[in-house]
From TrEMBL:
<comment type="function">
    <text>Functions as a peptidoglycan terminase that cleaves nascent peptidoglycan strands endolytically to terminate their elongation.</text>
</comment>
<protein>
    <recommendedName>
        <fullName>Endolytic murein transglycosylase</fullName>
        <ecNumber>4.2.2.29</ecNumber>
    </recommendedName>
</protein>
<keyword id="KW-1003">Cell membrane</keyword>
<feature type="transmembrane region" description="Helical">
    <location>
        <begin position="12"/>
        <end position="33"/>
    </location>
</feature>
<dbReference type="InterPro" id="IPR003770">
    <property type="entry name" value="MLTG-like"/>
</dbReference>
<feature type="site" description="Important for catalytic activity">
    <location>
        <position position="221"/>
    </location>
</feature>
<keyword id="KW-0997">Cell inner membrane</keyword>
<dbReference type="GO" id="GO:0016829">
    <property type="term" value="F:lyase activity"/>
</dbReference>
<keyword id="KW-0961">Cell wall biogenesis/degradation</keyword>
<comment type="similarity">
    <text>Belongs to the transglycosylase MltG family.</text>
</comment>
<keyword id="KW-1133">Transmembrane helix</keyword>
<keyword id="KW-0472">Membrane</keyword>
<keyword id="KW-0456">Lyase</keyword>
<dbReference type="Pfam" id="PF02618">
    <property type="entry name" value="YceG"/>
</dbReference>
<keyword id="KW-0812">Transmembrane</keyword>
């Protein structure tokens, strides 16, 4: 009789424990949701692009410095029913932020936004100067060398020229310029990969890096939409037959701060890695940040026999297949002779 009673008591206790588990679990969850998250830095920043999954967002917060379980954070997003409402944007959390307030910030798009416009055709030096002028953007990279900065964004050993996509970037007030640079770098990788995948068959370019370099030259040579593919066609033809590209923007880029606005014959005759008059082929790196249109022009140049072009003075160019025709065009459009 006593043994049966004891067994019944144990069974009842077990059932009671099973019934209480969800209650205990809910209590722990409520405690965790209201508890401040431990942060690895005074400010933890994350940029969320459109299409990022809730699991990836949770992982990104933990990698950025929110010291919690990424799975726990993801389960909270999912359990809340708000995961699909998380908005793309740049977010920063400060000490005192809880899992509740973190999710609420992303769902409500709780950002004080500023914007910085990075313009096509600008050099890396000009890019950095534009970021330094951006309103209420924390200048964390100001004292970094180019090599240190590229390492900080996860691209060690890569030359920064041409590697950041020109666009208008919105950011939360007070986030670091490093966050904007990471977004611009990732965006250029995506755009370059998309352009390279769409390249025309039989092209002269062998790698995406060559395409990026040629696109930067096209970007500097013309801002006219209708001429981009033709300019790329001329340079592709020259590369194919081994002619020097003879593009002034690359020489100007090589001069750097020494360029005073006047390109002289001595500059064209002074050899250097970016002098495409004295050296055949592409320069060693891009010379500017190309936009999407120039990337596509580089990989899908217009079919043309032209080997030369000259500016008409109205933003357009005159294209020629022979040197004689080109010289006549130069006389007409550059020297004012019939």
């Amino acid at each position: 009789m006593s043994r049966r009673g004891s067994g019944s008591g144990r069974w009842q206790a077990a059932v009671l424990s099973l019934l209480l588990l969800p209650v205990i679990g809910v209590g722990i969850a409520l405690w965790w949701l209201g508890r401040p998250l431990e942060l690895a830095a005074p400010t933890v920043e994350v940029s969320i692009e459109a299409g990022t999954t809730p699991r990836q967002i949770a992982d990104a917060w933990v990698r950025a410095g929110v010291n919690t379980s990424p799975r726990l954070l993801y389960e909270w997003f999912r359990w809340s029913g708000e995961a699909r409402r998380i908005r793309a944007g740049s977010y920063a959390v400060l000490p005192g932020a809880t899992p509740r307030t973190l999710l609420s910030k992303m769902v409500e798009g709780d950002e004080q936004l500023e914007t910085v416009r990075l313009i096509e055709g600008r050099s890396w030096r000009e890019f950095r100067a534009e970021l330094a002028r951006a309103p209420r953007l924390k200048p964390t990279t100001a004292a970094m060398s180019d090599a240190e900065l590229m390492t900080a964004i996860g691209a060690p050993g890569i030359n920064p020229e041409g590697r950041f996509f020109p666009d208008t970037y919105a950011y939360s007030v007070g986030v670091s310029d490093l966050l904007v640079l990471k977004r611009a770098y990732t965006k250029m990788q995506q755009e370059l990969a998309a352009a390279w995948a769409a390249r025309a068959p039989g092209g002269v370019l062998k790698t995406p890096e060559q395409a990026l370099t040629l696109a930067s030259i096209v970007e500097k040579e013309t801002g006219r939409e209708a001429d981009r593919a033709l300019v790329a066609g001329v340079f592709s033809n020259r590369l194919r037959v081994g002619m020097p590209l003879q593009t002034d923007p690359s020489v100007i880029y090589g001069l750097g701060a020494r360029f005073d606005g006047n390109l002289r014959r001595v500059h064209l005759e002074s050899d250097g890695p970016y002098n495409t008059y004295t050296r055949p082929g592409l320069p060693p790196t891009p010379i500017a940040m190309p936009g999407r249109a120039s990337l596509l022009a580089a990989v899908k140049p217009a079919p043309t026999q032209a080997l030369y072009f000259v500016a008409r003075g109205d933003g357009s160019s005159q294209f020629s297949s022979t040197l004689a025709d080109h010289n006549r065009a130069v006389n007409q459009y550059q020297r004012g002779r019939p």
